[in-house]
Amino acid sequence: MSSPETVERETGTRFMPRFDANGLLTAIAVDSVTKEILMVAFMNAQALEATRETGIAHFYSRSRGKQWMKGETSGHILKVQEIRVDCDQDALVMIVTPAGPACHTGATSCFYRRVEGEGLVPIA
Amino acid sequence: MSSPETVERETGTRFMPRFDANGLLTAIAVDSVTKEILMVAFMNAQALEATRETGIAHFYSRSRGKQWMKGETSGHILKVQEIRVDCDQDALVMIVTPAGPACHTGATSCFYRRVEGEGLVPIA
Q1: All domains in chain B, ordered by first residue
Q2: Three-state DSSP state, B1
Q3: Which of A105, A111, B25, B104 has the highest CB neighbour number within 10 Å of its CB?
Q4: How far is A31 from chain B (nearest CA, A)?
Q5: Was A86 annotated as part of a binding site?
Q6: Which sites bind Mg(2+) (chains A, B) (predicted)?
Q7: Chain B closest CA to A95's CA: distance in Å?
């Protein structure tokens, strides 16, 4: 049986973001027009707050151990139109308008290759 | 400057999945027809291998500490058509055909609510 907290989280109308043991949740950015997944990264509570306050996507870098604003160097920010949350509130989907290529490689999306056997093939 | 390994990972043609300190990577399931994001979860190496071998999405549950096949109880499996990988190879997008509602709540997608202030609103 589900706990009252689980029921509230899954069926309720209150935003109760659930951060994991490292204080993070998963955040996916989707292009509002093409519906393409642009990138996925993590957010801590501070990055989520910054995102909601500014309307521009902020994340937490596990490798650098700090918050960053997507586009802070490149200018390719992600303007957030809408934030969706999943059933157990440990993951977000942001519907965004990108100011440029979302990937630091210059690709529109970070997902520019598909797996084929042990290899990778560019997505047509 | 990027290390040779980073360059190979980002621009190469070899699948080199990168698991984090807990042995996990992020895996997103997208409906092949509607392009809707159905769910997001984690995979360990074993779950990824099972997914690739069977063509059915498997994940790793952090709360239960074990691998699971999506749909093992409900029958609502996700048939994997294609797997895409992101620039640094620590996240996957699976293009899938769902056998039923992807969410255990009965919703088509786990992302059935959007954030509005401190509240949540069903997605139209």
Answers
A1: 16-122 (3.10.20.810)
A2: coil
A3: A111
A4: 11
A5: yes
A6: 86, 88, 90
A7: 10
Considering only alpha carbons, which residue of chain B is nearest residue A86?
B111
d(CA A117, CA A115): 6
Tokens of B14: 């070899």
Query: Any chain A CB within 8 A of the CB of B40?
Result: yes
Provide the residue type at B117 as one letter: G
Helix (H) or strand (E) segment spanning residue A62: none
Interchain contact A91–B (C-beta under 8 A): yes
Q: Give per-residue pLDDT as tens, A95-122.
A: 999 999 999 999 999 999 999 999 999 9
Say yes or no for a CB contact (<8 Å) between A14 and B39.
Answer: no
So what's the ipTM on this one?
0.96
All residues of chain B having their beta carbon less than 8 Å from the beta carbon of residue A26 are: 26, 40
The reply to whether residue A13 touches residue B40, judged by beta carbons under 8 angstroms, is no
Which pair of tokens denotes residue A6? 């689980």
Q: Which two tokens stand for residue B100?
A: 């039923």
User: Which tens digits make up the pLDDT trace of A36-72?
Assistant: 999 999 999 999 999 999 999 999 999 999 999 999 9
CA distance B83 to B16: 13
Tell me the pTM. 0.97
The one-digit pLDDT tens for each residue of chain B (124 residues) are 688 989 999 999 999 999 999 999 999 999 999 999 999 999 999 999 999 999 999 999 999 999 999 999 999 999 999 999 999 999 999 999 999 999 999 999 999 999 999 999 999 7
Report DSSP state, residue B56. B
